[in-house]
Each structure stands twice: as structure tokens, then as C-alpha cells.
Amino acid sequence: MSDIIVIGAGHNGLVCAFYLARAGHRVTVLEKRDVVGGAAVTEEFHPGFRNSVASYTVSLLNPKVIADMDLARHGLTVVEREISNFLPLDDTRYLKVGGGKTKQEVAKFSARDADRLDAYGERLDVVADLLRDLVLETPPNAVSGRGLLSVLPQLFKAGKLGRRIAKLPAALQQEVLNLFTQSAGDYLDQWFESDPIKAAYGFDGIVGNYASPYTPGSAYVLLHHVFGEVNGKKGAWGHAIGGMGAITQAMARACAEAGVVIRTGAGVKRVLADKLGVTGVETEKGEVLKAATVVSNLNPKLLFTRMIEQGHLPEPFAERMQNWKCGSGTFRMNVALSELPSFSCLPGKTRAEHHTAGIIIAPSLRYMEDAYMDARRHGWSKAPIVEILIPSTLDDTLAPKGAHVASLFCQHVAPQLPDGKSWDDHREEVADLMIRTVDRFAPGFKKSVIARQINSPLDLERTFGLVGGDIFHGALGLDQLFSARPMLGYADYRTPVKGLYQCGSGTHPGGGVTGAPGHNAAREMLRDLRG
Q1: What are the DSSP calls for 241-275, one per residue?
Q2: Residue 484 and residue 148 in contact, taking contact as beta carbons nearer than 8 Å
Q3: Which of 172, 313, 501, 514 could form a disulfide with 60 if both were Cys (CB 3.0 to 4.6 A apart)?
Q4: Count of H-run helices and E-run strands, the chain
Q5: How many CB atoms lie under 10 A from the CB of residue 233?
Q6: Which of 42, 513, 27 is nearest to 262 (CA)?
Q7: What is the dihedral of CA 34, 37, 42, 44, to 10 degrees?
Q8: pLDDT in tens, 47-78
């Protein structure tokens, strides 16, 4: 019998298990799939071609987690992109961001915007630093029933964060408020006049977010994607050699060294509880495993609406979970390529710095807004947003010599199609559209595709438990953040069922491959277990 059972061997489950085992507890991790990693996995999808299946790039993985688990010793190497982003705009124009080129690139479109970049970066860095301090903290646990207005004052007064905000000049305090409440579009419109730079930065406001860039609150999603770092460089994005699965394989090795037992092919069907609290779990194969402490790495909606008897949950909590907002509008593809794409605006099939970047097909905020509106009306965008990463330009282990693999992170699509239509009937049609969209900017791309792997929102839910395809385990709106993630009164990784905890992205600080929820949940659990 284990002291603790962890449901789900995604990265946060592994992080949580590691800290618990390191403190001396007997920990068993149960994973439904035959491989550990959750959405951070690398698979061969065509002979000789491997790539990250769901999550696909590195920045938010917390440095403390990396150091504590000694992931480098366990095989993790992360390399930085040569430039951050590349935006093909039309047949002749493009924008490069990062690599020391941003200012001169933006000046092609607006000298005023180029002059404002430093001030914009300084403002954003101040707020991003606040978030970095907050990531490994347990949020103020507001009492349910006092309303959302009680959350923000508690948050701003809490510990180091509150003191730091109080010391900021009034203008920067206003900046914090703007980034938590405004839309990404409105925020960027206040800073810049040219479409390309607003598109480059605004894309971060809708990544995995089923929303227009002008949806209030999307400025926070923009911020959520910039508080990471790669190898000590703040705000950078990189690639894990071997794909995202290299992260979770390194974590699994760290867990094994700490004494964690990981069982794959052992999906959990039910969480068992009585009046006193959790008693264990029942697997999909009917095996009952007893434990007085269980921690879930699943989407809260999946856990509380499908895996535990509603009688164990207070009515307000059960209602909150029924209404937990999921759905990120994501259509995820991998493609095997015979050659690198040649863009009309920057021709050439020889590897260049822009091939190592996040290649964003979304030339303006208006384009992104139209994509969202299309998806709301028709189920998917007629002119979709596509981010292309070609990790084989940085990692030659992923594809045969001379060939490449590309990740296509596509938006917007409706998590559930209208009029009763099923994604199973339309996934190939939409995949064709995504390929054609890239081909418009890089003629010949379609012909270079040797094979493809498709994950619609329904596929992402069935395979990885991402309800509605939601990569964040719940929308990152103000009503589902910090002390309200997942609910007022339960932001401390505990649940209404004694002995049942949560460590997944549905808790603070939210989605992305951070490891922070797993780290924080383990800290709270150890406090209770010591007590």
C-alpha cells in the first residue's frame, strides 16, 4: 500500500510525486496511457520522424523545479531559438522578433513603434517579475461567498507580492491593473501603431485561448506567456532536445531515483471516498488501491464531474465544477517534411534563423479576431491562425538527414462543433485547410508534406484528458485565476474531500509546462502530512 497515490503522470504529477517521495513518502503514480508525460510527450508518428505530440516548446518550466529534480543530470538539454518569432505578412514583407533584431525590424513599419519597444519591454518585465515571484506561492485562499472583489485586495496585500506592488510608482500599478483586466488588443493599441508588431505580441494573448485578441482579460494570457525563461534568459523560448517528452522522461528518472513507483496502462476510473475523506481509487481494470491521500493531475472538470460521487461535494463546489470553463480552440498537427519551407517574402530552403523561430501566420490583430469570429459561426476559421515550429532545425535527432518535422499549432476551432457535427467527421478537412494556409505563405509546403499527425479538440480530450482541447485545464480568465483557481476557498490545492488534493494546471498558476502546480501542491500536502 502506498502512502500517496498520484493520478496522472503528466509533468505536474511527476513533479508532485518527486517532492513527496523525496520527503520520505511511498508514492505511486497511475497513468492511463502506456507512456508517461501527459501532454508533454514525444512520439514517432511516421517511420524515422519523431516530434512533440501536444505541448511543443519550452520557456515556462520553472528553474527551481529544474534544479531540484536535477533534470540536466537526468538527460534534459534545452536550446534557445536563434530568433523568437518570424511573421510572414504577404509576398514581400515580414517581421523578425528577437535575436537583437526586433528594433530594426519594427522600424521598417514604424519608427515610432521602434522607439517605444524599450519602454514597452521594461513595463512588461516589471509585471512579469511580479508573476515570477507569485508562481511558486500558494494564492490567498479567499473564503467562498465573499465574491471576486475580495480576491484582488487579498492578492495584492499578500506577502512579498503585495509589498512589491505597493512600492511601484502609480503608473506601474496601473500597468499591473491593465494587464490583468484589459484585452491584449486594447493594451497593444495603446503602445503601438503598426500591425506587424501588434500581431507578434498579440499572438501570445490568444495562444490556447479561445478568444478574440480584443476579449477583456486576454492581456493576462499575453503576460502568462512571457514570464518564463530558457537557461537563465528571461522571456526566451527554446526546444528540448528529443522533444517535450525529454522533459517528462527526465522527470520520470528523477522520480524513480527518489523511490516513486510509476504504473502506466493504469487509468483511474473512480476516486473512492467515505464520510471521513478519500480512501483510494479504482482503476479502469477494476483494481482497488487504498490510500488516505490522493492527488489529481487532471482537469478539475474531469475529476469532479466524472470520477467522484457528487454526494461528497458541497453543492456550490459541484456547481462551480459543472460550470468550469474549458475549451482552447486548438487544432494540433505534426507534419513530416521532405524539405524546409521557402516563404514568398523570404525565399530559400537552406536552413536560416527564421526556420528556428516560432513562425506565426497571423499578420494582424484583425486577422486573429476574424479567425475567432469564423470559428464561433462555422466551427473553424476560414483563414486560420497557424504557428509553425520546425524543431529539427535545432535537433537533428527528430528526422532523417535532409528531412524535417514541424509542429503546427492551429487556431481557431470550436471545441465542440455546432449543429451536432463531430470532429471525427471533419478533422481531415480542417487539416487540409491548415496545410493550405501555410502553403499560401510558403508555396510548395503542401507538396513537401510526407505524413501528418492530427489532433482535433476531441482527439486532445480523448488522448490526454484535455477537456474541450483545453491546454490550460481551464480558461485563464480573471474569474478562474489565483484565488479563484479553481474556486474561492480551494485555491490552496486542497479540495472539499479530506485527503484529496489537486496538482494540475487547473490550479495556480495555470497552464503551460511549468511544474509549478506540482511543486506547490506537494508543499501544501507535506504541511498537512506533517501536521
Answers
A1: TT-THHHHHHHHHHHHHHT-EEESS--EEEEEEET
A2: yes
A3: 514
A4: 18, 21
A5: 12
A6: 27
A7: 10
A8: 999 999 999 999 889 999 999 999 999 999 99
